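Summary for the lay section of the report: proteins are chains of building blocks that fold into shapes. Here we show the chain for DUF29 family protein and then a coded description of the shape we predicted for it.
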Amino acid sequence: MEEILKLKELLLQGDIQGSLAIVNELEEMSRDDIISNIRSYAVILLLHLIKQQAENRTTRSWDVSIRNSILEIKAKNKRRKSGGVYLPPEDLLNTLAEAYPQAINKASLEVKEGYYESEELEQLVSQDEILNQAMQLILTEN
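The coded shape description reads as follows.
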């Protein structure tokens, strides 16, 4: 809110450069918020993909959670007015990779009812396979 008031003040003073700097800052804050939201859904997506791979099974609940996470990631990533996306595939893959450690930690509490520590679980699953599977699902799933 502070930024909006400052922007108004700068506009009333005719300070276009100062106003543009505030607008750029607001855009960056908005983008960071969107990426954070995408990352949160990425953790959920990866969590269930990890559980599927570690337990070599799936449940209807996991499948629904995966689909819902994909839908949310796609919706949050889409630029509504200008078209395109906030995160192109390479940046999206990086975001998934950043979310992976948190997903492993959460999965360690759920796989085999919490039997594995996160380090042990990491040895049981393939991070590359899971990240590639997540990307493929996001890029192809409707």
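Put simply, here is one thing we learned. Helices lie at 2-13, 16-55, 60-77, 89-110, 118-124, 127-140.
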